[in-house]
Amino acid sequence: MRDILENITEKLSTRGAESDLIFSTNKSLKMSAQKGEISEYKVSSSQILGVRVIKEGRVGISFTEALDEESVNFMITEALRNAQNSHENIHEKILGHSGDLVDCAFYAEEDVELSTKIKKTLELESLVKKADSLVTSVPHNSYSENEFTTLYLSSSGRFTSFRDKAFSISTSALMDKSGKKANYYDSHLTHRFCDLDWDKVIKKSLFYAREFLNESPLSTGKYHVTFSADCLQSIMGCFSNFFSGKAAMDKVNPWTPHLGQEVISADLSIHDIPQFDQSFRKSFFDSEGVEQSPLTLIEDGNLKSFYHNSVTSNYYSTLTTGHASRSALGPLGVSGTHFIIQGKNPKTLPSKYVEVIQMDGLFSGANRVNGNFSVAIKGHLWDRGERIKSVGNCTLSGNFQELLKNVEVTGTLLSSSIDGTFFTVPLLFGDLSIAGV
Q1: Which tens digit of pLDDT belongs to each residue from 324-342?
Q2: In the chain, which end has fewer C-beta atoms inside a 10 angstrom radius, N or C?
Q3: Is the pLDDT of residue 32 over 90?
Q4: Which residues, 6+ apart, have CB-to-CB distance to 405 below 8 Å?
Q5: Number of helices (H), then strands (E), in the chain
Q6: Directed axis angle between helix 69-84 and helix 2-14, to 10°?
Q7: Per-residue confidence at 154, pLDDT binned at 50, 70, 90?
Q8: Residue 205, φ and ψ in degrees, nearest 5
Q9: Per-residue CA distances from 50 to 157, 224, 229, 283, 309 (Å)
Q10: Where are the domains of the chain?
């Protein structure tokens, strides 16, 4: 495949264009069960070759799923035509890196029979139903495995190769008690089939579905609030533009004027650590072939850096942070790797607070420019160290910037999101508005 990529860059060079190419493949298997039978069984594979060309300061992209000579030549022609028809962009260039970088993971495991995978998928439904008579259905359950490869080659001679494999399972429990319904969903992600925790997703789905059968709204007012790692990850992801150099360049990052200034609580520091030991998968280079290293986004409350690729760094006359993101299909963007929230001066939890473990409608109820958001929540009310009430039918409202200013650190042990890319110390957010009854 490398020969094909090199041939394309040579063809583009003869036409006076710099270029880089991304070739991605994916092989996947997905199954789900309903009413005691496999209701979905899908085996698929795909490949996409994408090219970005830069000629006379103009950028064009194109892609193809076929690798025959005619399809590849058409992709080249389209990319050059798209560049010709685009506006000049003085900041976008192909980086001058050369040499090879390889990150191809291998996970030793014995072959697993398909019959075993089918049996375990069926149990994601049957064991949930058998566990509790209140379970009326298992609306979502699935088993999937994905093997993917990405190759990158630039006209300057940088070549990278990435390969990985992942397995995931999920299930849910829909319960009905005297006409009141509750549902909860859980999942697990691993690199090997043998490491999948089937019992965990079943037990957790059942536990929280039972809890939410007894949920009731809080009285409307201000509350101290904690978020699960996954919920806090969703909030940070919703407002990722606050950390993005591209959003700053596009005038949609409210923190753009505040680089070097205090923007959140002085007790918090936020880092992006590509090779973080506890992460699901370490990252070594970005989509421009730039080797990655730890990045301090915020230190002691002070904004130190945004995520940058080569374009945003050129725009701001700085260096790329190695956070370029691009698929074979699209333009260049920025993206983080592993988001780590660390803290100091831990305080004791108050006697009473709300623990949020599920949110719905966050992105539809958020303004990414001013930071305001409103989201439906479920969780628990804690009082004097005891969980006294399951909470639901409530709406939490706040502002992203104020959220991170009015926060206290309550511990030092990091907790992780399900996908293993987000880590945070325990945090308590004060005076958040919750609308209930």
Answers
A1: 999 999 999 999 999 999 9
A2: C
A3: yes
A4: 264, 265
A5: 8, 22
A6: 40
A7: very high
A8: -60, -45
A9: 17, 48, 35, 22, 18
A10: 2-212, 215-437
Quote the tokens at residue 352. Answer: 């009473």
Rounded to the nearest angstrom, the gap between the alpha carbon of residue 269 and the centroid of all alpha carbons in its chain is 20
Contacts 24+ apart (CB under 8 A), 313-317: 313/245, 314/91, 314/92, 314/93, 315/91, 315/245, 315/249, 316/245, 316/248, 316/249
Residue with tokens 């090219």: 51
Q: Does the pLDDT of residue 193 top 90, yes or no?
A: yes
Helix (H) or strand (E) holding 314: helix 310-315
Angle at the Cα of 381 (from 377 to 382), degrees rounded to 5? 145
For residue 53, give both structure tokens: 């060309």
Report how far residue 424's alpha carbon sits from residue 431's, in angstroms, rounded to the nearest whole number.
20
What residue type is assigned to position 197 of the chain? D
**H or E element at residue 235:** helix 229-238
For the chain, the first-to-last Cα distance in angstroms comes to: 62
- How many whole angstroms separate alpha carbon 23 and alpha carbon 252? 31
> How does pLDDT run across 287-325, given as a tens digit for each residue?
999 999 999 999 999 999 999 999 999 999 999 999 999
The structure tokens listed for 376 are 């439906």
2-212 CATH pick, 3.90.1570.30, 3.40.50.10190, 3.30.2290.10, 3.30.70.100: 3.30.2290.10
| DSSP code of residue 327 | -
Confidence (pLDDT) at 108: 92
Q: CA 338 to CA 327: how far, in whole Å? A: 19
Looking at the chain, the whole-number percentage of residues with pLDDT higher than 70 is 100
Q: What is the pLDDT of residue 437?
A: 87
pTM of the model: 0.95
Mean pLDDT of the chain, nearest integer: 97
Tokens of residue 111, six digits: 């072959």
> Rounded to the nearest 5 degrees, what angle is found at the Cα of 236, between the Cα atoms of 230 and 241?
150
Cα 130 from Cα 146, distance rounded (Å): 30
Beta bridge partners of 342: 269
